[in-house]
Amino acid sequence: MVDSPGATNAVLDIRNLTVTFPGRPVVLDVSIRVEPGEIVAVIGESGSGKTLTALSVLGLLPRQARVTQGSITLNGRPMLEMPANRRRDLLGDRLAFIPQDAMRALNPVLTVGDQVGEPSVLHRSSTWAAARRTAVELLRVVHLAEPEKRAADYPHQFSGGMQQRAMIAMGLALEPELLIADEPTTALDVTVQAQVISLLRDIREGHGTSILFITHDLGLVADFCDRVYVMYAGRIVEEGPVKDIFENPRHPYTAALLAATPSMLDPADRLDAIPGQIPAADEVVAGCIFSPRCAHARDACNNAPPHLQVSRGHSVSCWFPRGLS
Amino acid sequence: MSAFPTLSQWSWRRHGAFTGGIVLVGLMLAAAALANWLAPYSPYDLDVSKMLQPPSLAHWLGTDEVGRDVLSRTIHAARISVQVALIAVTVGLVGGTLIGLIAAYFGGLIDLLLIRLMELLFSFPAILLAVVLMASLGTSILNAMIAIGIIFIPGFARLARASTMDVLRQQYVEAARTIGMSDMRIMFREVLPNILGPSLVEAAVAFAYAILLESALSFLGLGAQPPEPSWGNMINTGRGFMAQAPWLGIVPGLALFICVLGFNLLGDGMRDYLDPHMKE
Fold first, then answer.
1. Does domain A12-94+176-317 have CATH number 3.40.50.1980?
2. What gap in Å lies between CA B67 and CA B41, rounded to an integer?
3. Are A112 and A153 in contact (CB under 8 A)?
4. Which of A292, A216, A73, A294 lies closest to A229, judged by CA?
5. Cα atoms in the Cβ-side hemisphere of radius 13 Å centred on A302
6. How far apart (Å, rounded) are the C-alpha atoms in residues A216 and A42?
7. Contacts of A212 in chain B (CB under 8 A)
């Protein structure tokens, strides 16, 4: 997508974000937009910088990390320039985050109801009694059986899927403008994964909540998201509507990722693997960051790749995009 | 995270020591609370005609050098010991836990300064520190409470700091930040309830130690002042009559022994009970 300077109506607009650990960039020149009511996926391996990108939006980067460049706006509010206490007021209210491992994200000594009701107490000065009633309603919204009874339970009395539902309920508490879900299904069984995904989809339909969905699971993205950003080693290598990405992947990395996904149609098919490993953060790669592992790399790849618009909304950072060169 | 056993699942055999601790501590607390009704005589009434009588039906545990009933004085002394221990442990628990929590949460220079201060306090032998504090505060039972409390602060601070550092690595603290909680709220709502378990165990053990320290201070004449009965000053008096009237020293000594044993058993039992790793 072409960056047009000036105001947009995007819910989340990350532009040219660079995050560095002392001496080395871990997120480089990343731009991500989420439109109202849109579900956008950020796909990448572990260590590709997708979680750090999300944490920069929340302003909760690890102590050593710094945003050295770029801007982030949430419905026009500049997130990076905002004082810490104002940003804190937005968290859990306008901007909700659903973590990867719900079991460990719930406090073992507090009841689930109290934790789900906490945002109302925190941001709406609601009383605890009212917050508990809200919590029961929210647990009902996320399809938890017997919400009145369950609200008084402690997290360890919940199954993994129920815990993740509770986390989603907590995220939804104040009807946020944007929900950032960081691999919310990784710790769950496949059948429970499907339930959580369909819940997130219902939430988008019901509340118009925009969702930024961070994952390494291509299978989840295909039938759930509207647009996809593919991240590799801290950079966005390809972005586009989910259909284009899956049917016509232009970047060799995206194509390799798709080839490495097991297919239900041909289970006997050998899976392709991508040779090598994601470069270590302090490793310097000249030119295209993927070139050392790329099957199609040529001399030109030793220079920084161009950013090419392939079709409407579909762009790629590559010297030799597949099917075009 | 552990599911605590309910009363019906309580195994008296497995928790035998714990049960013993509860009984001994219960006896001690009952003696302290009901001293006015349990004690057969006033602990202050002198009767020189009855001095140094051996145990008899009238005076079950004999009388002391001025004819006061030893049983009554021992029971009343429990009250002072419990008061001192309660206040001292509260001072230590609250002060130490706050210091440890703040040190670990904010880290850096704050941590360094607080922990160095705690180590400074730690480096003095407890009794010496108590004597120095008493010397500067003046001898009174209230000052004894404060002095003993100050001695406890570093221990609780260290414990709270270690547990806090452990809890801060947990994801639910990070999750609390993502819903916009302030540092203050995270410390007291998310972290504190999770670090309290070990501190309460430590408190039970500290209780025994506080009673011991109070007795030591009273023995040295720095704690409870005569005629106020305290096990410490009773033992000190008894020391001079060991040959003629051994019960004067032995009775408060036994009381002290039983009480310290009780709190130690209680502390051990609580540790096993609260720690899920100790469960089969």
1. no
2. 11
3. yes
4. A216
5. 2
6. 8
7. none
**Is residue A269 pLDDT above 90, yes or no?**
no
Residues A204 and A183: beta-carbon distance below 8 Å: no
Q: Which residue's entry shows tokens 């050392």?
A: A292
Backbone angles phi, psi at B21, to 5 degrees: -60, -45
pLDDT confidence bin for A260, thresholds 50/70/90: confident
What average pLDDT does range B77-105 have in this prediction? 94
- Give residue for tokens 């260290």: B158
What's the full length of chain B, in residues?
280
- Asked whether the beta carbons of residue B171 and residue A58 sit closer than 8 angstroms, the reply is no
Instruction: Please check whether residue B178 lies inside any domain of the structure.
Output: yes
What letter does residue A244 receive in the DSSP assignment?
Answer: H
Beta strands in A75-151 (DSSP E): 77-78, 95-98
CATH number of the domain residue B124 falls in: 1.10.3720.10
DSSP B67-104: S-BHHHHHHHHHHHHHHHHHHHHHHHHHHHHHHHHHHH
B279 within some domain: no
- If you average pLDDT over residues A272-299, what whole number do you get? 81
CB-neighbour burial class of residue A65 (10 A; exposed 0-12, middle 13-18, buried 19+): middle
CB contact under 8 A, A89 and B194: no
Nearest-by-CA chain A residue for B186 = A107
Sign of the torsion formed by the C-alpha atoms of A189, A193, A199 and A200: positive
Q: Which domain holds residue B75?
A: 16-52+65-261
CB atoms within 10 A of CB B65: 16
| Residues in CB range of A44: below 8 A, 6 or more apart | A50, A216, A230, A231, A232
0.95 surpassed by complex ipTM = no
Is residue B269, in this structure, part of any structural domain at all? no
CB of A192 within 8 Å of a chain B CB? The answer is: no
Which residues of chain B make contact with A106, given a CB cutoff of 8 A? 172, 175
What is the pairing mode between strands A95-98 and A178-182?
parallel
Domains in chain B, number: 1
pTM: 0.80
Q: Name the 3-class secondary structure at B34.
A: coil
Cis check for the bond before B5: say yes or no (omega within 30 of 0). Answer: no
Domain boundaries, chain A: 12-94+176-317, 104-173
> Residue B69 falls within a domain, yes or no?
yes
Per residue in B224-237, pLDDT tens?
888 889 999 999 99
**Judged by CB atoms within 8 Å, which residues 169-188 of A form the interface with B?**
170
Instruction: Specify the pairing of strand A39-43 against strand A210-215.
Output: parallel
Residue reference for tokens 């508990």: A132
Q: Cα distance from A78 to chain B (closest Cα, Å)?
A: 17
| β-pair partners for A309 | A315
What's the rounded Cα separation, in Å, for the pair A199 and A192? 11
Report the alpha-carbon angle A247-A251-A254, nearest 5. 65
